[in-house]
Inverse folding.
DNA sequence: GTCTATAGCACGATAGAC
DNA sequence: GTCTATCGTGCTATAGAC
């Protein structure tokens, strides 16, 4: 792996683990096995490197989500697959966690990938919910964009509950609760 | 206000704004208008001061939640009042945001208040949901603890969505979506 | 109780040799 | 491209005068 590659990967790991404020250039260099001068040769500085890392993580997250949301099954089944997909729950969401970082939020360039990714996810889910509503899988009174926001928020908040308690139980409970609510008024769903 | 008081309040503000990793003793001293020696006279160090600040914020959050959850109205109405209560959405949750702080999660003493507070909140809501279910306000198939986890997660995740987008819209959408799901199978609720 | 002084180290970045 | 050296600043904390 090339040095810029290793620097980006090291930054991705550290941003996930410790956030932007908690990640130092020195730590990145050590994790990447690269020297000081090497890092500053390939990147303008910490914000520049973080931007590359965040963009890659955002792309990866979109691809992972699309893999499930664009997969087989009815809209409800795909939403369920998204909610139940395997996650490193106690590590949290590598994109969502950055929203709590003051220096990321203060920098529009760093914030943009977060906004775009979560916005894309909500719109993707909203379309799926609308489709499911037309099929009678979801109650007609539901609003696709609102339910999509609830779904994404439940996942993001699930990470918070899990990390606070040091256990994945609360995340799983939140997901099960949401699925039970979504299954209401959906006779087909209560069969299985 | 006494010096220890001012130091705790300054720490609460900074922890909310910048998290534990992003908050320095120097910044605390400046915000509190206290000197270096003064801070170390009253507190053992940054973790000790943070613990006092976090405990106070946790207590305050419990009291605020109890004010709504223990208020007037049916269980559904009290859950709705909790979800719709005024919040400083773009600032995020002063307790929830700390779960993304690696140094807080690594320190059991600092993590404990977060765990206890969110756990209390979930149990309080779970009891309310169970009560509402017995009254026919919520579907019989729902599980109190699961729905409680979904409610708290929706709020915590709503903050994430709001901060990513720089707007409160997504938080509000998530709350409306959850309320519409909770109102399903509750004929009384669809009247109004 | 509060102050200033100082410690030892890490921060984020630049300079310039190789 | 990568290295070491260095910069000026800020970190967390201690010491000791007042």
């Amino acid at each position: 792996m090339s040095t810029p590659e290793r620097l980006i990967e090291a930054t991705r790991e550290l941003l996930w683990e410790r956030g932007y404020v908690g990640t130092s250039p020195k730590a990145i260099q050590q994790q990447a096995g690269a020297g000081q001068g090497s890092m500053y040769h390939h990147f303008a500085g910490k914000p520049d490197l973080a931007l590359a890392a965040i963009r890659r993580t955002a792309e990866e997250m979109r691809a992972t989500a699309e893999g499930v949301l664009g997969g087989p099954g009815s809209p409800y089944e795909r939403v369920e697959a998204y909610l139940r997909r395997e996650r490193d729950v106690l590590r949290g969401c590598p994109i969502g966690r950055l929203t709590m970082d003051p220096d990321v939020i203060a920098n529009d360039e760093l914030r943009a990938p977060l906004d775009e990714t979560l916005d894309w996810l909500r719109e993707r889910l909203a379309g799926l919910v609308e489709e499911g509503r037309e099929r009678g899988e979801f109650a007609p009174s539901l609003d696709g964009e609102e339910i999509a926001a609830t779904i994404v928020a439940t996942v993001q908040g699930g990470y918070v509950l899990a990390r606070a308690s040091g256990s994945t139980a609360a995340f799983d409970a939140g997901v099960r609760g949401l699925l039970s609510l979504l299954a209401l008024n959906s006779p087909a769903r209560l069969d299985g």
